[in-house]
Design a protein that fits this description.
This protein has one domain (2-112). 6% of the residues lie in helices and 45% in strands. It has one helix at residues 61-67, and strands at residues 2-10, 13-15, 33-34, 39-41, 50-52, 55-57, 77-89, 98-112. It starts with a strand and ends with a strand.
Length: 114
């Protein structure tokens, strides 16, 4: 399934926004990556809503473009087209977020202007 994800860009490298994958935030293009699926919480470790982790992405490029307004901290962010497998909805999110078990980044679609 095709989906879209926001990544941080540093030079030629794409990085996760927050959590590392096997000790690294780097996400290489064209390689299948497996999520570390486990119970996690948003924001607060005690009050945050618990859910199963996964790669955060969205089905619609238009929804992803609207979602980018959530980012305020200046950094080089890009929207990336990707393929995903094993997806489920993040039901408590304000946006239509998908949590994918596997992801492969295919190409950068556009830079996000903050």
């Amino acid at each position: 399934m095709t989906a879209y994800r926001i990544c941080e860009r540093r030079g030629e490298k794409l990085l996760t926004l927050f959590h590392a994958i096997n000790g690294s935030r780097e996400m290489p293009m064209g390689v299948w990556l497996d999520a570390d699926i486990k119970p996690v919480r948003d924001a607060s470790a005690t009050r945050g809503k618990e859910y199963l982790s996964g790669f955060h992405c969205m089905e619609s490029l238009d929804e992803m473009r609207a979602f980018k307004r959530m980012f305020r901290k200046p950094r080089d962010l890009v929207i990336v087209e990707c393929e995903i497998e094993g997806n489920r909805r993040k039901t408590h999110s304000r946006a239509n977020v998908i949590l994918a078990d596997r992801i492969k980044l295919n190409k950068i679609i556009e830079k996000i202007e903050i």
